[in-house]
């Protein structure tokens, strides 16, 4: 019956060549290649749950007085945005499941992108002819970071409102244009005019998802055009692809991966509470809470902001405000290095050839060592941003831990570089000896 | 196109049975989900049924994909770029479009200048969005503005005892404006080192918005007991900028680049408080021309 | 009993009567039980043994070591002793909550002795008369900057800020009125007795926040959430990928 149905479609739809192409497409199916797919399926879950949320959320700063079911908020003034999120969370159990699944999906989406980026980096998959795809991936990472921030700032709760104030300060810190840009984005001075909330909503619900969707399409188109990379192994050369055809095995496994990703996210969404904004209360510029943190993927920025000494250089009356260094300069430098990396490596190694076979990390000890150093450099601010409570609990005063972390920020990447280089070279030697023995 | 390297057809009835049972389980869980949603929705149960149902389906498909359907390994050659006929590749085709043009360099330079200028010009109107720089960093406080509480009631100076703080707002202004909230602290009058004339009976007021990144400076540390306590300070919970209320809001620790702006105070005849002038400097986070405003 | 002991005893009796007369002005207006004399004496003996090395034999403090206890009242003594902050071994350290060194009966005597030196009596906040909604608002405005909006504690330059889930209503009221260690204090002009009761009611509610979203993972926000995303979420994803994909190509 299925066969008859497919034949019927085949005769009528006409353009079945793409379908046959797809069914026979060969995928190298090492598990490490699945991070990108996992990220993609997180995006699908985000869109699906997000659509549901748009039926409930009201992106309005209009102030109302809460008289709903949650006693601690009764009588409090809050924005419609906050109230609609509270109502969705507390008066609609399925709505809370969707909201929490959406938020967990965002956290895992970014984690999967980072793992995918690291896999691409440490296997050299960004080399010619895939540099453009590497750039597209980085743009998607940047937009995903922005998207997540916009998403958790929409409910106008106390901690996320504090985060928006900090974002405003970082925008303001941009030399020359910072002030006008801040006014542009916030529809006036912070906390912003009425348009801010609805513009943030449009960005989060329409503009960025459309952009990410389009970039995903181009990203995947490139993968198909160039075919996927593969590890060295029996039968594998620079001129072929060895793997499973899409149909039936790979398609079923991909579908299984999608359902598995969705399952994990839904289980988290139902069982582990995340961002319980009804407990935090609404945002007011005059209020603050201790322990306010951004979502994990912005932890590097809060740490950088905390670690910076209070430099605020100024000359002739013009100032570079302090948040610029930790909030704008540091991420710009990090992304700058990442964007430039394929060309940095090409310059350093002189390697201009096309590569479709992947490196093992030990095949390129210098790249791996640099990557270890770079990711350590990005990781230290995460510790500075999040561990203040832990360290004070261990009787290490906050001021002391900041001083130590500043030193570690410079020292640990160098240590990571040295240790990794030594280790990778050792592994490469051993692998070479093993290959020699196997050949002889 | 692709060459078959290896093909295994599992053919195991037990695997097929397992897949069928898992699919059925997924179905049962889906029905359970619907029942719970309609009868007595509960977030945890809804998540469990939906999630486990998806997991059952995922497991079914995964087992099917690895252990039930034929497992093939194929080799496919990578597509070779089809070499274009001489003169037909992309660069040549593009070059053909400029046949006959002799002032190519001039045109390219003119185009470059035009493009850059248009982009720069497009950015120019951005300047109009900031209505006279005084918009950023300004506050509604003026001489004579009364200090009121959250609900608009005037603050009585005597209510703020030694070793405490409270938040005050300008009477008649929007409390949500960044320049509105001030933090009021009572110090021992002898402890005030700088601008003592800005204090009213030991009470000092500072903008509550941190000059680092705009969070509310919502912490006061004030030790009345103990010989080893650090000096009184206003501290911001975001990045721990620490300001000295006894010394014109000077930065004691943390990343803030400017002192906390101070509001001069005076007592009113009915025991209340009012501003004796405007803020000592721009409030909130710094920007490019903060030190020119 | 010599003259030195008789004088504080007489003072205690006078103060006890005085307290009873001005009870409405003090939080809760706790009145002194009739057998105050014996309690004060016993308290004095304990004081000499356990507290005088830092606070001085006359309880007027030792400069550079510990403050005077004259005028701090039963309120302060009960707070510090019942939360186990006092006695503390290192006067330069931050006092932290611990198991009380003395049981309730012993504490009663010590408190009576300190009360005999003057100062506010024990508060008796009536949490049922307070409003959780008002308490949330007041707590957010005055306390959340240090204690975090869910009373989970926090950090300030120079000290740590305790979590509040172990605090009783009375201890909460005491801390608000006293301003122990580096905490500000809030007098009746700032927070009325009803306000304090509301705040206490809210803080007590933070022992059992509304966690209808599932496991609360500590109520400290995005840091444990990020850890769960990586340690649970990503591990699960990794497991699924390894089951579905090839290990050795």
Task: Please explain how this structure is put together.
- The complex is a heterotrimer of chains A (440), B (293) and C (249).
- Chain A contains 16 helices and eight strands.
- With 440 residues, chain A is mostly helical.
- Chain B is 27% helix and 18% strand.
- Chain B has helices spanning 13-39, 43-68, 90-96, 104-123; strands at 3-8, 71-77, 147-148, 165-170, 182-186, 203-207, 219-221, 233-235, 242-244, 250-253, 262-263, 265-267, 273-275.
- In chain B, a hairpin with a 5-residue loop joins strand 9 and strand 10 (250-253).
- The longest helix of chain B has 27 residues, at 13-39.
- Chain C is mainly α and 249 residues long.
Compute the separation of the termini of chain B in Å. Answer: 72 Å
Distance between the termini of chain A: 57 Å
Q: Can you tell me the CATH superfamily of the domain at 2-302 in chain A?
A: Cytochrome Bc1 Complex, Chain C
For this structure, what is the CATH class of the largest domain in chain B? Mainly Beta
| Beta fraction of chain B | 15-25%
Measured as a percent range, the helix fraction of chain A is: 55-70%
Rounded Rg of chain B: 36 Å
CATH topology tier name of the domain at 2-302 in chain A: Cytochrome Bc1 Complex, Chain C
What count of domains describes the coordinates of chain B?
2
How does CATH name the architecture of the largest domain in chain B? 3-layer Sandwich
The CATH architecture of the domain at 2-302 in chain A comes to Up-down Bundle
The helix/strand series of chain A, from N terminus to C terminus, equals HHEHEEHHHHHHEEHHHEEHEHHH
Spatial strand order of the main sheet of chain A: 1-5
The major sheet of chain A is characterized as: 2 strands, antiparallel
How many beta-strand segments of chain A? Answer: 8
Shape of chain A: globular
- CATH classification class of the domain at 2-302 in chain A: Mainly Alpha
Q: Radius of gyration of chain A in whole Å, from Cα?
A: 25 Å
What would you call the structural class of chain A? mainly alpha
